[in-house]
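I hope you will forgive my troubling you with a question about protein structure. You will find the record immediately after this paragraph.
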Amino acid sequence: GAMDMLRAYTDMVKANYKNSDKYFHARGNYDAARRGPGGAWAAEVISNLRESWQSDVSGRGDEDTEEDQEANRWGRSGGNPNRYRPKGLPSKY
């Protein structure tokens, strides 16, 4: 599960595509959760740590953190990550 989260993060950085953050949040959590309870647990822990750190450091605010967490929960629950896919994001992602 942790590797799925890392892969989604790495892809997000490589893509550097506007408004794709929520998609990569959902995709990482989705991929990790598909590995079973351990993957879902790893995704939740990593997501919570990242959002806690980000809200303290980035200054993006509570609203952005909650939107990220919504995408995280969506992916972990088996929801299709493409719900958050921005138009025009290259298909390799």
